[in-house]
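help with this:

***
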Amino acid sequence: MFPVKFTPIPVPRIWGGHQLKSMFHTQLSEPIGEYWVLSAYPTRQSVVAEGPLAGQSLNDLVRVYPEDFLGESPQPRFPLLIKYLEADQNLSVQVHPNDVYAQTYESDFGKTEAWYILSAQGERRICLGHDFNSRADFESAIATGEIKSHLQYREITAGEMVYIPAGTVHALLAGTSVIEIQQTSDLTYRIYDWDRVSNGGEKRALHIKEAAEVINFPTEETKKNENKIGVIEEPKKIVSPYFIIEEIVLETDFPNGQSRILTFHLGRERSPDMIICVKGNVQIRVDNEKSPDFSLHLSPGEVGLIPATVHSYEMIWHKECILLRVHY
């Protein structure tokens, strides 16, 4: 089987922007907050953009070719979702549940995620964490309207990675664009929405009760894992129970515009690789009995899904290229 890429799904959001529209070739006039570039989530399913499998959804591929496009997955469905986020305004302060809570009360999976910072303007920071000692402290701050004074922040720069386990209070702030790699889930509990009012004069719903159930408040276990949350500087790699993300920089120090080729093996045997093109252009080529000399071209904003049955593949590039490789 051969690699595929998908048509992005633009999602309008009240906090979205317009800067990424040219990358994703969208003509929508409203602000776009999210571009889902690889998704098997039932309400927004990615569709193959080109090639012999064009028009088929990721769920179609998983159902018809499970060995190729699902591989040894921890779930019977495709377990990861990749999207681009553009925040022209602050996102709500929010938290996501873990698998246990989500499966018990929402009939869904939890949401641990990670961000790769594309651009950081404005305040150049994110909301990440809180200083509540207990659930009672949190509920008291909600009741008195003092939630903002308990939020914690981290400065960010382009190219950094941020790891956000389920239960972490967080918010993307205005002027920031990121690539988000997450569990396949759409469960979000809003804690605070900056007193924002829609054009219709309404405030968005908050989910205080649910949030109080899932926020990670200090315990011996959370204190032990506290340094695993936040900005990952060196090496640029995140290893979590749900995904592994690594940055690959393909440099250009060769003359006369010559191309260069490197061979890669799957990040995990019998599981697919996902290649996200952050900068530059790259050609991915596989050569096996089922797909002789098949190649896939990726530009910024595109994701290539490399089948779990491909033992190795080649990257071919001419100018500097920055990629993220993801697998589970």
Summary: Residues 244-327 form a domain with the Jelly Rolls fold (CATH 2.60.120.10).
